[in-house]
Design brief:
- With 375 residues, the chain is α+β, with helices and mostly antiparallel strands.
- The chain has 2 domains: 261 residues, no CATH class; 55 residues, no CATH class.
- 33% of the residues lie in helices and 26% in strands.
- It has 11 helices and 15 strands.
- Strands 1, 3, 4, 5, 6, 7, 8 and 9 form an 8-stranded mixed β-sheet that branches. Strands 2-12-13 form a 3-stranded mixed β-sheet. The chain has a two-stranded antiparallel ribbon with strand order 10-15.
- The longest helix has 20 residues.
- It is globular.
- The two termini are 24 Å apart.
- The relative contact order is 0.15.
């Protein structure tokens, strides 16, 4: 199968020369609108508001094609997510197949606050599984279900009495007198098994956070209640709900630091190779290869859990041991420090308890530093 089907969205969108030229021209247009602002301080909504204000004709090119203004705004927002990621030199993180399976069998405790829901970088793309084997899906009205591939995440803090805050003057849940933390998200569905590597699914969503002590579960429930009756999201809300929950568990796992990471800097290595080349033929070959390579960090378990089955043996007093059963994993708040006054989030992995025991085999691997990528 064509390798481009398995490339993550930030790379797949520029993996061919024609696609790359189109996006570079689009991004030059965005650059001309945003040249006087600090994009790191701007949410996707604010960037879209600037486009509406400074280039109404660009928005009209979409609304004139039988799209509503809201639909055009959603489409343009889906273009702004990769643009902001590229402008901020975002990083790609990949969850290993093992971690993704562990997290799918994990619950988020009801006491975990939103303060722990933070991306490791101000802008990043998290790729779910190395082999597109997630059991979760995203929805596309035309081509149906897609394997959940990943999510763009950018974090922005907006202060009261700023132009950025003014963009939310009509937002029903934003209190302009309070600091606002926004997580801009765009989930992507994989084109694996579809008609082409451009056949994917995209879903944009923002988390507006005023109170970091609000729990993650209550915030996710609020989103379902807020958008559950919205006709635009009627068909994909169940997909979005599961995707949001999974993203939250990945962020919690990363912030719990109960993992090891391994960096693969293929793109950086090819860029170094290109600098040493003089042959036009070889330069063209490696530049083509560069469009399909990327730097990433793979998040893996700390240890490899091997479950072994044993025959149940009666105790000496002829009572049977407790029947083996599966215990779901979960995140919970752990007291620590002097007097156990502090709290931190920890991950309790899912496991078999009772008659079957998990034999843990430790292993180690070299952990390399993460280098920013230009794609």
């Amino acid at each position: 199968m064509d390798i481009t089907y398995k490339l993550p969205h930030p790379i797949r969108s520029i993996c061919e020369e024609v696609k790359e030229k189109y996006l570079m021209n689009l991004y030059k247009f965005f650059d001309s609108i945003f040249e006087d602002i600090d994009i790191t301080k701007c949410t996707i909504d604010y960037l879209y508001a600037l486009i509406e204000e400074n280039n109404e004709d660009f928005v009209k090119t979409y609304t004139s094609s039988e799209m509503t203004r809201h639909e055009a705004g959603t489409l343009i927002s889906s273009l702004l997510h990769p643009y902001k990621y590229r402008s901020m030199k975002g990083n790609i993180l990949t969850t290993s197949n093992e971690i993704d399976k562990l997290l799918e069998a994990t619950d988020i405790g009801d006491d975990i606050p939103l303060s722990y829901l933070r991306p490791p970088f101000k802008s990043c793309y998290i790729e779910f599984t190395e082999e597109r084997c997630s059991s979760l899906h995203m929805y596309n009205e035309e081509s149906g279900d897609h394997i959940l591939e990943g999510v763009y995440i950018s974090e922005t803090v907006i202060h009261p009495d700023t132009e950025e805050m003014n963009a939310y003057s009509l937002h029903p849940i934003v209190d302009q007198s309070k600091e606002l933390r926004v997580l801009d998200l765009m989930f992507t569905g994989s084109p694996l098994g579809k008609s082409s590597n451009s056949d994917d699914s995209l879903r944009v969503q923002s988390l507006m956070i005023h109170q970091d002590n609000t729990t993650i579960n209550s915030q996710l429930k609020f989103i379902e209640e807020q958008y559950g009756s919205d006709s635009d999201f009627a068909n994909d809300l169940p997909y979005l709900s599961k995707a949001l929950n999974h993203m939250a568990k990945v962020l919690l796992f990363i912030n719990s630091k109960q993992y090891r990471d391994t960096a693969f800097n293929e793109r950086s290595e090819i860029e170094k190779k290109i600098k040493s080349l003089k042959s036009p033929g070889k330069l063209k070959k490696y530049e083509k290869k560069l469009r399909r390579t990327y730097n990433r960090v793979i998040i893996k378990p700390e240890d490899n859990v091997v479950y072994s089955s044993v025959n149940e043996i009666a105790h000496s007093h002829k009572s049977s041991p407790k029947k083996a059963h599966w215990r779901k994993g979960h995140f919970r708040m752990q007291p620590y420090g002097p007097g156990a006054e502090k709290r931190k989030v920890i991950f309790i992995e899912p496991r078999i308890v009772g008659g079957i025991y998990a034999n843990k085999k430790s292993y180690s691997a070299e952990t390399k530093s993460l280098e920013p990528t230009d794609v």
